[in-house]
Write a structure and sequence with these properties.
Layout lengths: L1 H13 L3 E3 L2 E3 L3 E3 L15 H12 L4 E3 L3 E2 L19 H14 L4 E7 L24 H20 L4 E6 L4 H6 L14 H4 L1 H14 L5 E6 L10 H14 L3 E5 L5 H12 L10 H8 L4 E4 L5 H10 L3 E4 L2 H4 L3 H7 L30 H8 L1
């Protein structure tokens, strides 16, 4: 009886509704943005994408954030990445939002906006090199990209999503500008932390102007670069604080710039039973952002770990890889009498696919075993 009673205690907290204007969610679980590689060659929504989000919506998660959508055609990391650089993208995105709204039983949705940057960091192994260089990009082109983020956010709202998310982590463009390990500039866009965060703040302002004051803006941010000469939790907490004061409605904590698969294997070992890779950054981030909602993603697999994070000051729990093999994991965790931990073992085989093939759980796909034997 003790185990059931404890499970119910965890379920009560994780399954609680979340209200912090303008965010209203049915529970504390969010599907963290996960690259799909399922758009067509023009960045348009396909039936495969609609089916993916149909399954996720029915699975019981409170908030779904799509895989990153490129705000410029030359800002794509992969050939079949979702695009949002043109008004022609709106109709497909409208259908995607409608799938989540219709079948998600109150699930909310957001599109994540991104620009690849130099393609030398993040999960961009296998990406097409677009020739982008932080060192040589002009101030005029930086301003164009800022406008592109704002225009893309307006398309997200026009398509019927509940929020817009921004990828400011993992070594993509905004993250590259933030990190001293990847930003060589000595002008107003580089050198000091204040200058390195300028692009993120300008992108936020451009988005806010286009979507209005009551439309939620969510932001994924590193907690550390895990690179020599990179930034750490205190610097990134300062960035989070500035974004929160500017008006960002949710900060999602993640981490890492390069060699993400090997890094996550290491972080899993270091986290041990605590599970969350970035747990140690919760306290400085919470102090920095005040009452602004805080989410965390990375390695979280059990209700007990989720409860621990909620007690530590996190508001929402992000899930990425576990939902690839178990889209219905949230519903199972919140309703089963004996909720076991996620089936995902963090083997990272899914991450090896995303630069060239549609993402999927390889370890628990029965057909994959047939393929491997051929």
């Amino acid at each position: 009886m003790t185990q059931i009673r404890n499970s119910n205690q965890y379920r009560k907290r994780v399954g609680q509704e979340f209200h912090h204007h303008p965010l209203h969610l049915k529970n504390r679980l969010l599907r963290s943005a996960t690259m799909e590689y399922m758009a067509d060659l023009e960045g348009q929504v396909t039936d495969d994408l609609l089916k993916l989000y149909y399954d996720l919506a029915r699975g019981g998660v409170g908030l779904i954030i799509t895989g990153c959508a490129a705000v410029e055609e030359k800002g794509r990391a992969w050939a079949q990445q979702l695009g949002i650089w043109d008004d022609r993208c709106i109709e497909g995105l409208r259908r995607l939002a409608a799938v989540i709204r219709t079948y998600g039983d109150g699930c909310r949705s957001a599109v994540q906006l991104a620009h690849q940057g130099s393609s030398k960091t993040g999960y961009s192994y296998g990406a097409a090199e677009q020739g982008y260089s932080l060192e040589t990009v002009t101030a005029g082109d930086i301003q164009k990209t800022i406008r592109r983020f704002g225009e893309a956010a307006a398309r997200v709202k026009a398509a019927g999503f509940d929020a817009v998310a921004v990828h400011g982590a993992h070594g993509y463009l905004l993250s590259e500008f933030l990190s001293p390990a990847t930003n060589p500039r000595r002008d107003r866009w580089g050198s000091s932390l204040r200058n390195r965060m300028r692009l993120s703040l300008e992108v936020y302002r451009a988005i806010r102007r286009r979507v209005g004051e009551d439309f939620p803006i969510l932001w994924k941010l590193n907690t550390a670069d895990y690179l020599e000469n990179g930034a750490g939790p205190e610097e990134y907490a300062a960035v989070a604080g500035e974004l929160a004061r500017a008006g960002v409605n949710l900060i999602e904590m993640s981490g890492g710039l390069q060699d993400q698969i090997r890094l996550r294997a290491r972080l899993k070992k270091e986290a041990g039973p605590r599970e969350a890779y970035f747990y140690s950054a919760v306290a400085p981030f919470r102090r920095a952002v005040g009452t602004t909602p805080l989410a965390i993603t990375g390695g979280i697999r059990s209700l007990t770990a989720m409860e621990d994070l909620l007690e530590a000051g996190v508001d929402l729990i992000g899930l990425c890889r576990p939902l690839l093999c178990e889209p219905s994991l949230p519903r199972r965790l919140l309703s089963s009498p004996h909720p076991r931990r996620a089936r995902c073992t963090s083997c990272n085989q899914c991450l090896l696919r995303i630069a060239r093939q549609p993402v999927k759980c390889v370890a628990f796909d029965p057909f994959q075993k047939i393929v491997q034997q051929l």
